[in-house]
Design brief:
single chain; 103 residues; mainly alpha; Serine Threonine Protein Phosphatase 5, Tetratricopeptide repeat; 5 helices; 66% helix
Length: 103
């Protein structure tokens, strides 16, 4: 089982854009895996996911989707159940803007 001692390494890995998308998703999964059985580390781990998601415009859209799905499993992560809804709206806006042909 992965424990709280791994948090700093996972944070650094998740934030480093030189790592591949799915490697970073694995780091986010690791943080969630720590949060579940370790209530003393739960808020820290979920806060890290929220912090990474707040870089929504810098993140890959797929990474944002994975972060939202992790946070949706923990409705109180953002202080209220609708926290990730705002991020979903931003992702939707980005997708629409990137799909709109430029003339």
């Amino acid at each position: 089982m992965i424990g709280a001692k791994a948090i700093p390494v996972l944070v650094e890995y998740l934030a480093d854009v030189s790592h591949g998308l799915y490697s970073r998703v694995s780091a986010a999964n690791g943080l969630e895996k720590i949060a579940n059985p370790h209530p003393e580390a739960r808020n820290e781990c979920l806060g890290i996911l929220v912090d990474q998601l707040e870089r929504i415009s810098e993140n890959d859209r797929t990474l944002n989707g994975f972060l939202i799905s992790r946070l949706d499993r923990h409705p109180k992560a953002g202080g209220n159940a609708g926290y990730s809804e705002g991020f979903r709206g931003q992702i939707s806006s980005q997708a629409t803007a990137s799909a709109t042909p430029r003339l």
